[in-house]
């Protein structure tokens, strides 16, 4: 009986290995790099009315007769749109990288859960086997008391 137990447990031994690889970016902060690369450019509006002094005034103002004097340079507007598109593409790439990292972490967690479940099932089967062997040899306790 003891020989069958040892061969059973040696045949069910498993080697579990989970390896995770993460890459860390050693580059500088991209926002800081963009701030350093900023340049002073020509104004968006070719002429501004005197009563509008802040950007908020320009953006929120209502159409009036004096707004005809302030025209937006199409080249500057095109440049602003392209800068926004580049910023948006960068954000999309950052989100994609974060999603990929999260997916990798989920896969690792799933693999660990599967390994833990396998070990639990192995432990349960070993306990059931031990319980059966002990229940078959229940008379041993009575024999020992007599000796």
Automatic annotation (TrEMBL):
Where is the region Disordered? 1-22
Highest taxon, organism lineage:
Eukaryota
Question: Which PANTHER family does the UniProt entry name for this protein?
Answer: BLOC-1-RELATED COMPLEX SUBUNIT 5, EXPRESSED PROTEIN
Query: What's the protein name?
Result: Uncharacterized protein
To which species is this protein native? Answer: Populus trichocarpa
């Amino acid at each position: 009986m003891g020989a069958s137990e040892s061969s059973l447990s040696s045949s069910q031994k498993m080697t579990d290995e989970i390896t995770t690889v993460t890459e860390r970016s050693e580059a500088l902060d991209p926002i800081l790099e963009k701030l350093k690369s900023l340049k002073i450019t020509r104004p968006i509006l070719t002429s501004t009315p005197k009563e509008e002094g802040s950007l908020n005034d320009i953006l929120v103002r209502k159409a009036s007769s004096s707004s005809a004097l302030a025209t937006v340079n199409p080249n500057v507007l095109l440049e602003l749109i392209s800068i926004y598109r580049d910023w948006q593409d960068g954000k999309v790439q950052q989100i994609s990288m974060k999603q990929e990292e999260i997916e990798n972490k989920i896969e690792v967690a799933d693999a660990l859960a599967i390994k833990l479940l396998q070990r639990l099932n192995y432990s349960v089967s070993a306990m059931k086997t031990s319980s059966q062997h002990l229940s078959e040899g229940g008379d041993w306790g009575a024999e020992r008391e007599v000796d």
